[in-house]
Amino acid sequence: MSERVEASVAEGENTIKERHIGAMWELEQKLDQSMDEEANKLKNMYRENGLSTLMLLRLSFQSLGIVYGDLGTSPLYVFYNTFPDGIKDSEDVIGALSLIIYSLLLIPLIKYVFIVCKANDNGQGGTLAIYSLLCRHAKVNLIPNQQRSDEDLTTYSRTLVAEGSFAAKTKKWLESRHSKKRALLVVVLLGTCMMIGDGILTPAISVYKTFFLTVLSATGGIRVNNPKMSSDIVVLVSVILLIGLFSMQHYGTDKVGWLFAPIVLIWFLFIGATGIYNICKHDTSVLKAFSPKYIYLYFKRRGRDGWISLGGILLSITGTEALFADISYFPLQAIQLAFTLFVFPCLLLAYCGQAAFLVNHKEHYKDAFYASIPESVYWPMLIVATGAAFVGSQATISGTYSIIKQAVSHGCFPRVKIVHTSKKFLGQIYCPDINWILMIGCITVTASFKNQTEIGNAYGKITTRWRKRRRRKMSWRTAVVVVMLVTTLLTVLTMLVVWRCHWIFVLVFTILSLLVELSYFSAVILKINEGGWVPLIIAAFSLLVMFVWNYVTVKKYEFEVHSRVSMSWILGLGPSLGLVRVPGIGLVHTELASGVPHIFSHFITNLPAIHSVVVFVCVKNLPVYTVPEEERFLVKRIGPKTFRMFRCVARYGYKDLHRKDDRFEDKLFENLFSFIQNETMMESDSNYSNSVYPVNYTQESRDELISNNNNNHDSNDNNMVMFSSMVDYMDTMSFSQNYTVEEEEEEEDELEFLKTCKESGVVHIMGNTVVKARKGSLLPKKIAIDYVYAFLAKICRENSAILHVPHETLLNVGQVYYL
C-alpha cells in the first residue's frame, strides 16, 4: 500500500514539474518569439534587372581579358609538352590533335560552359557556390544557424523533393551523419584550396614565360648578342612584371577587363587566322582528327608514352577551372557567348594549324607555334603573344578573389578586407590582403627558378635545366585536375538533389567526366616527384588554415548556443542586482539569432547597468548569393515594452559586402523605428504588452523547483543558469506587473524615447573572446586551437573593422571560451 502511495506521490510530483517546465518553455517562447512573421512581411518580388543586348556584348568582350587569358595562351606550349623528345610519326600529331579537340569539346564546352556553369548560385560560381546550393536543399551546413524565416527570402530559391524519390534518398543519405557533412565540406575545401594554389602558381609561370618568350622565341626569333643570359636577370624582370600585374588589380575588374580584353581579342584573332593559313598551306588532312578513332590509334601506337603525354594535352584545357569561378564577375550568357562563338573556334583553328605544320616539319616540335607563324606577321605576333602571356594569369587571380569572399561568408576563412570595384555589378570585387599574399607567393615561386634555369641561345636550344623546369610546369597542373574532379562530384550531387535529373543522364555525365579527368590525373600524378608537389604543399597549407578556422568557428557557435541564457534571467536581474538603466542605446553584437548571448550576461554581471534601450544585433551570413536591402533586417521586440529590448537580425549573402558607405547603423535604426510604428498601428489593446505574460506562480512551486534542482547533481552550468533564471523570474513577476495603465500613459512616446536615446549615444558591445582548448584535449586539438587559430585570429580583421564600427563607440567585453 505504501509503495502505491509513494508511486502516486512521485507521479504527482512529476506532473507538477512537467507543468512548470512547460509553462516556463511557453513563457520563453512569448518573451523571445521567432522572426517568421516579420520575414513574411518583408518578402517582396525582388528580381535582378535583365541585360540588354549591347550590355551583353560589352560584358562578353570584357570577359576575354579576365576569363580566357590562361586558356587562350595554351597553344604556345602544348605540342612541345606533348612531344618533349620529338615526333617520330606524323600520325602521332593527328592523334594528339584529336585528343586536344575532344578535350576542349568535352571539358570546357560541354561540361563547364553548358552544364557546370548552370549549377551556379544565381550568378556565383566555384565549388563553394555549389556547396551553398546544396546547403539550401539539404541540411548539410555545419553551422546550424538557419531559421525558418530565412527560407522566406526571395533569393532563397530551392525546390521540394517528393518523398521516396531518388533525390529524397540522396538528401537523406547526406543528412544522416555528421561525418558525411564534414567529409563533404573537406572535399569542397580541397577544391577551393587547389584553386588558391593555382592562383599562386599560374601568375608566376605566366609572367616568367612572358619574359622568356621575349628573349627566346625559336628559329627566326630575337637575336641577342649574348647567347647566354643569366637567370638572375630573368627572375628580376619577372618579379618586376609580377609587382606591376598585382599593383593594377585595385583598379577593379571593369577597368582591368577593358585594358586586357583588346590584347586577348587580338591574340585570338591572330591564332585563328594563323591556324587557317597553316591548314590551307601545309596539310588539310589534319581535319580528320575530328574522328575519335585516331585517339584509339594514338594510344595503341605509343602505349605508355602516349599515356604520359596526356600531361601535355592537359595544358590545352588549363584555365577552364577558373572559368567557373569567374562567373561572379560576368553573367553566364556573356561567358557562354564569348566561348562558344569566339574562343572555342579560334582555339580549334590554332591547334589544327600547328598540327598541319608539324606533320610536314617534325623537327620543329620545340617551337611549333613561332615556326608556323608567317614571316610577315612574326613581330606583331610576338608582341601580342608576350602581352597575352602576361595577362594569362588574370583568370586565376580574379577567381581567387571570388572564392575567398565565399569562404569568408561560409566561416571557412579568416576575415579579410573585400572591396567592391563596380557599382553596377556587385560580383566584381578586389581583396587587398589576398592580393598581396598572392603576389608574395608568386614572387617566392618565381625566385625558386633561380639557378634551376639557364636560358640558352637565341636559336632555341633548350638546356637540360630548362627541360626540368618544363616538366615541373606540366606536373603542377595536378591542382587543375583535382579542382575538376571536385567540381564533377559536386555537380553530380547538384543533379541529384537540386535538379533531380534522370539517373541515366547523371550516369552519362559522371562516366564521361571521370573517364577524361581520371585519365589526366593518372598521367600528371606520375610527375609528382618532378614538381607536382608544389601545388599540393600550397593546397595543404591553405586546407589547414580553412579547416582549422571552420572547425573552431563551429565549436564557438555550439559553445554560445549551449551557454546562452533565458530572457527570464535578464528580466530577473532588475531587483536582484539593482541594474541601472543609463541613457543611450546599447547594440549587443552576437552570432545567435535567438536567446541572450553569454557575453552579455558576463558583462552585466560584472557591471550591473544596462542602457535604456538594448538591441541584440545578429549579423548572419546565409547560403544565398545576396539578400535584398528590403529584406536584410528583421526586428522583433523581446519581453514587455517596459524593458525596451529588441532583437535585430541583419542577413547577408556571400556576394554582399559590409561597405563603409552602407550606413549600417542608420539602416538598423530606420528598421527599428519602422517596426515600432507598425506595431503601434496594429496594436488594438493598450495593455497588449502585459496581457501576453499571464503567469502565476506560488511559493510552493518555487520551493519545489529549488528542491528538484538541488537533487539534480548532473546539471551543467548552463542548466544552472536556466534554473536560476526561472526562480529569479518568479521572484520578480510582481516587478513587471507593477506597471499600471496610468503609469504607461505617463510614459513618453516610445518612438520619441528611442530617438532621444539615440541622441544620447550609441555603444556597440562586442565580444573580445579568447578561445582555448580544454584541459585534457588531444595534442592535435590543442595545436589547432591554441596556436593555429590563435595566430589566425590575431592577424585577421576584427568584426568591428568589418562592420566599420567607430572606435569611440566600441566597447569590447573579454572572456575565455574553453572548447
TrEMBL record:
Its main location: membrane. GO terms for cellular component: plasma membrane. The keyword Kinase does not apply. The keyword Ion transport applies. One of its GO terms (molecular function) is potassium ion transmembrane transporter activity. It is found in: Cell membrane; Membrane. Residues 583-818 form the K+ potassium transporter C-terminal domain. Belongs to the HAK/KUP transporter (TC 2.A.72.3) family. PANTHER family: OSMOTIC STRESS POTASSIUM TRANSPORTER, POTASSIUM TRANSPORTER. This is Potassium transporter.
